Amino acid sequence: MRFLFKTDYEDDIKLFPHSGYIVSYGLLLALLAIAPFVLSSYLVSQLVFVCIYATVGVGLMILTGFTGQASLGHAAFLAIGAYTAAFLQQFNVPFPVYFLAGGLLTGAVGALVGFPALRLQGIYLVIATISFAFIVEEVLARWESVTHGNEGMRVKTLSLFGQAVPQNGPAFYFLCLGVLILTIVGTLNLLRSPTGRAFVAIRDSETAARSMGVNVSLYKVKSFAISAAITGFAGVLFAHKLSFISPEMFTLQLSIEFIIVILIGGTFSLHGAVLGAIFLVMIDPFLTYLKDDLPGIIAGIAAAFGAGQATAANIQSNVAAVASANGLKGAIYGVIIVLFVLFEPLGLYGRWLKIKLFFQLFPLYKRATFKRQKIYVKSERNR
Amino acid sequence: MLDFVQQLVSGIALGCVYGLIALGFVLVYKATEVVNFAQGDLMMLGGFFAFTFIGMLGLNYWLGFAGAIIAMAAFGMLAERVVVRPILGYPQFSIIMATIGLGYFLRSVVGMIWGTDDFKIDTPFSQGVLRIGSLVLAHDKLSVIAATIILCALLYLFFNRTTLGTAMRASSENMLAAYYMGIPVKRVVSIVWAISAAVATAAGVLLAPITFIHSNVGLVLGLKAFPAAVLGGFGSIPGAVVGGVLIGVIESMAGFYLPQGWKDVAPYIVLLVVLLLKPEGLFGIHTRKKV
Hey, which residues does B137 pair with through a beta bridge? Predict the structure, then answer.
């Protein structure tokens, strides 16, 4: 186990605490840089979605993970970013301008949502953000002069400095990756600044933060605005990736997916946003793979255990029928969410930390290190 | 004027359904501080149970209704035992996510078993109408209103007159204190879930003649029941029903008098306004945290 000897504050807030970080992240960056030239175009396209979802996840993480304000309305922020891009693009506005405009406008809307949210806690905030998302969805469907209503809007191919950047090419992948990395670095810097520490203080105890002199209202609004702005930037990329947007894409379902991203990744670290995004985006190809291959595999196992040919074929067709049933994906989503909440509340990154600690401490690891405290008396109703 | 009364009655009937779902939220929230995002899906599942008993097995309507309620009460207990009890006492957000997951699961399993079509249950109230002068009121809507009143009266008596009801109120005040006083809190919570699933089933069966049953009906109506619960103050049983009726009437009026599109957002606009002006709702009690 490595012990870090910190002599001053600068040591404590370093982005890379020791050289191992630089090596491993450098390696990761190199792998990501060669990915589009090695992987199939389908997988690269999924990687772009990972980048976009992870960007949204980082935005949501600032709000939910670090400021403790739950939101089930981030699909609306994504929609505002996407529609701003699609709308401005009609007037031949260059990409950098509408990219910034999308993020800033969404940030402004986020701040506006933040003000009413100041008085709300827990469940009320969740319900209020759901309502906000519904209202935005309805506005998008009805404000036909700007959004073309339910017909949706076509988004032209992105062009950057006179060069076309098709949404399936490697250049677009690098653009999304760059945005993600910038977002992560920016957020890490934010979190080690006074603003970030104020966010965490508000999450841990609002009353304590207030008595330490943190302006709770101001920082909550800031958190909403920053989170929304990041989601807006992701929205611009999302619009380009899909090249067509319509109101029914930005439903509550999508907001729940974003929450799943940070919940499955682990709501206490930015690693969680990326891991969760990888999980959520890659589950689709994985399920398709299972649907195609699982029946054969199970039948093979059955045959190996001495089932006859007819029985094996029977099993294969039964499993295939279940695997191709409509809505199986929803059931699997549901089960995954429940299992993570019940058994792995710290998410994938929490699991990684546990495994790492297990090997670092080798015979001395104890489970209780990560045990959650149950609180029966501290009612969330009275605060 | 006649149109107005007609809209009012259908709004109240729809609102009673919202109220019944909101009642389920409130019961569970009062007892355990858990907000059950799967409440609408429990209603949907109850409707499908009733459809199976009445439409597929050909049972008598009342028998099928009772069967569905009993089956769903058992299912409510099961859901509480498997999903909610292990995480009771953890932050509210994880419980919200767990119930969202449960809702996902129920929707898609129901879709796989019964299919994604619309289903209709034949009820004794499906056809008839009541005429008062030139006013025409459908029986199905009146039955919803009557059933809501009866259910509310029963629940009121249960919570205020029986020992079990008192135990429930005690454990909702302070779970730990109730446990020290000898109340079997776990069993109480599990009964609360059974009651709330049963109320949801009643809502689902009563709703069946008005809107058909399909696997997504719970999501749509469950989300409309949130404004109802918030409007009434999230912890108040009469508040839930009053809030539901208000939301139903507002929605129905908005659909009739305002341009298209307002009908669907009106409840949420009302909700946001209520949250801004009076976050504790109409019947809620405002409390402050003591440090």
Answer: B130
